[in-house]
Design brief:
Blueprint lengths: L21 H11 L4 H9 L12 H7 L7 H14 L30 H9 L17 E2 L4 E2 L41 H20 L9 H14 L11 H8 L7 H11 L3 H5 L25 H16 L8 H8 L3 H7 L1 H39 L6 H7 L8 H13 L4
Antiparallel strand pairs: 1-2
Helix pairs in contact: 1-2, 11-14, 13-14, 14-15, 14-16
């Protein structure tokens, strides 16, 4: 067996709904080598790619963030990692097996999403912390295990997490390094919406389960066969699926691939498993399902009385002094309207809400930064008093893995060393 350049790390969960995503695998592989994902990518993976971003800056990570899907970056990263790890199963950590029948646009999230209860349970069971491929898919918003909405903001500093970044570590915030797991139960939203979201997650999960079992790659012909069969058995109009007419007819004519969202709505409408539909299996239409959710918020006109009531609620949010203050998005969701409605009718109040929220985020970031500084100094002093050199490895073990990779925190560590007489 040939020797590998990098550890031949075993991927998690291949053949299950919760198979690991390729971005998560890279983060764990970096951790195994005691380096950051940024170091691993720039030193080992990046040179094997055709990407022109030689310095691996922000634009490179935007390119790399799509690697869990069916894009060019997905195929390139799999090929590069196959050679470096001498593994042959890393393509199953992406949706590459479905590249001929899935539209790449809007397929993969631009930010990381996670279930805090899953993280917490894995940590308590001393299992490996990782990010399933399922969580990175744009149409998946719920955890199928805990029946709760996935989160996308750090509970400590409020920042969003990149799918893959220089300091990405599954289960931890890229910015403040705080733990993202929690055993706190989420409030249960509308039952009808949950049913739809869980159905979506389960059907996309079946695509991930099916990938290693495929004898041949699904083709456009298979998908076209299903679309034609559906149209023959039960003629369908764009209005039935709440879809644009042009998009629907272009898909039927074979001129474009339907989006994953369109396929999900179609399969839900006819009670057909998504995987069967995409593989062109003989379809049996059970019944028309009228429980499709709306594609977006319906436009609504407010009368003067309703606007007055809405203004009162917005003023309460501004002047109530609630901590933490809500963002304009959270407030709009809470009031059942759009951000545009708030900005159009109450521009000054909306700006006040945004200002308060941004000030809170800035303060939280400073508080977390000060806390980390104090922890680093305490760790350096503790290790020094025990007669050891306070190396980066020892300090990070006591504080948070990867914390000293940030330039400012590394300076805090250096200053603490000098104050104790270490050169």
């Amino acid at each position: 067996m040939p020797r590998s350049r990098l550890y031949s790390l075993q991927p998690i969960g291949i053949g299950t709904w919760y198979a690991e995503g390729l971005t998560s695998y890279i983060a764990r592989l970096a951790q195994t080598h005691c380096v950051t994902p940024g170091t691993l990518i720039s030193g080992e993976i990046g040179p094997k790619l055709s990407c022109n971003e030689s310095r691996y800056g922000k634009r490179f990570y935007e390119y790399a963030s799509k690697m869990n899907g069916v894009s060019k970056s997905s195929i390139e990263f799999v090929f590069a990692l196959d050679g470096l790890t001498v593994r042959k199963d890393l393509r199953f950590l992406t949706l590459a097996a479905w590249s001929e029948v899935l539209q790449p646009r809007d397929l993969i999230k631009t930010q990381r999403a996670w279930c805090p209860e899953c993280y917490q349970e894995w940590q308590e069971a001393e299992q490996e912390i990782y990010d399933p491929l399922l969580w990175s898919i744009n149409d998946v918003n719920y955890c199928t295990v805990h029946k709760r909405q996935l989160l996308d903001r750090c509970p400590h500093c409020g920042s969003k997490q990149p799918i893959i970044g220089r300091f990405t570590r599954p289960g931890f915030c890229d910015r403040c390094y705080g733990w993202l797991g929690s055993s706190e139960k989420a409030t249960t939203p509308d039952a009808g919406n949950v049913e739809w979201e869980i159905w979506v997650a389960q059907n996309i999960g079946e695509l991930i389960v099916t990938s290693p079992e495929l004898n041949c790659q699904p083709s456009r012909d298979m998908l076209s066969r299903s679309l034609i069969l559906i149209q023959k058995q039960a003629p369908l109009y764009a209005s039935d699926l709440d879809l644009p007419k042009s998009s629907w007819w272009e898909c039927l004519s074979g001129n474009r691939l339907p989006s994953l969202k369109m396929l999900l709505r179609l399969c839900r409408y006819f009670s057909i498993p998504l995987a069967d539909f995409m593989l062109g299996h003989q379809l049996k239409i059970v019944a028309l399902n009228g429980s499709l959710p709306a594609t977006g918020k319906a436009k609504r006109k407010y009368n003067r009385i309703e606007l007055g009531e809405l203004e009162g609620l917005v003023r309460d949010a501004v002047y109530s002094g609630t901590e933490p203050p809500p963002s304009i998005t959270e407030l709009a969701d809470r009031l059942g309207c759009s951000k545009k409605t708030l900005y159009n009718h109450f521009p000054e109040l909306s700006r006040a809400i945004t200002t308060a929220y941004m000030s809170h985020r800035k303060k939280m970031g400073l508080d977390m930064s000060n806390l980390l500084e104090e922890k680093i100094r305490d760790a350096v002093l503790c290790i020094h008093q025990n007669g050891y050199y306070p190396s980066k490895e020892l300090v990070e073990k006591m504080v948070t893995p990867g914390v000293l990779h940030e330039k400012f925190m590394s300076k805090v560590w250096h200053d603490a060393l000098h104050s104790l007489g270490w050169g």
